[in-house]
Amino acid sequence: MDKLQLTTDAQGVSVVAGLKDYFQKIQQLAATGEQFPIDLDEVWPLVYSRKDKAVRTLRKEFFEGEDYISFAQNGKRDESQVSPQNGENSNGGRPEQVYRLSVSCLEYFIARKVREVFEVYRTVFHQAVATHQAPSTPDVNPMLLQILQQQSQLMTGQQSQIDQLRSDIDQIRAGVRVKKPMARQLPVPFSSPVVDVRQTRQFITRRINEYCGIQNCQPSEVYRFLYQRMQSVYGLNAWQLTRHPGESVIDAIERYGFIDRILALITAELVIPQS
Fold first, then answer.
1. What is the count of structural domains for the chain?
2. Which spans does this entry mark as compositional bias, Polar residues (predicted)?
């Protein structure tokens, strides 16, 4: 395959010619059982200015044999042809080192670092997985499917924030002053249709009581865990919400319109074995 180059179109939008076709070919190779279907030489230009920078990052942040493999161009280094003085072979050059990546390594090493690349990657790999898995869950509650989709959207947004923080750190190290954004209210990460709050509260109470019966714990412990996770996942401190006299924390969460996030956390993290 040819090397991929990140370019811009007439409107200044970053594009990569043939990127979707490339990812589809990689997906086909992975489907055959190929563990390391990506050649580093084909993808490093998407993110890095030089291959040696990409190699250093790869060796520092990922595990050889699990995330990637490396070998000389002919499969192994021919030590008989290498000079001990300068490491060159008899033809006057070093054996070229080849690096091949797993699909998961490609995602976190390359794709997630460029928004335009990740959008194409996501449409090929993530949606393909969802399409493949959909027929096996015909009886799943549509509301729960929607919650899982919302969780996926939230994770994508969090990754964008992480990428921005990394960019800010790189600028600070380079001596560039980073402008701090103006303070703003916590945004709602996704929009959802009107939910029957009464049914949602009943479901939450029933699910927590069922979980406590299995795990032999108190509901107060579960609620405390959910509020802690709410702060970790959504950045929202439930204990700091203004409460009316006699109002509980969960009542305040409902009044502020965050009850769907508690529902999402319960669905994702309170695992109840199926009988």
1. 2
2. 81-92
CA atoms of 275 and 273, how far apart (whole Å): 6
Whether residue 126 is found in the same domain as residue 207: no
Asked if 269 and 229 touch (Cβ cutoff 8 Å), the reply is yes
By C-alpha distance, which of 27, 61, 63, 33 is closest to 47? 61
Q: Tell me, yes or no, whether 180 lies in a domain.
A: no
Nearest to 199 by CA among 259, 264, 249, 268: 259
Q: Which domain holds residue 65?
A: 7-136
Same domain, 31 and 127: yes
> Is 93 contained in some domain?
yes
Summarised one tens digit per residue, pLDDT across range 135-187 is 444 455 555 565 566 566 566 656 666 777 777 777 777 777 656 554 333 33
Residue written as token pair 């060796």: 59
Question: Amino acid identity of 100?
Answer: R
Q: What angle do CA 64, 173, 231 make, to 5 degrees?
A: 75
Answer with the one of 98, 115, 136 that is the final residue of a domain.
136
Q: Which residues have a Cβ under 8 Å from the Cβ of 171 and sit 6 or more positions away?
A: 177, 178
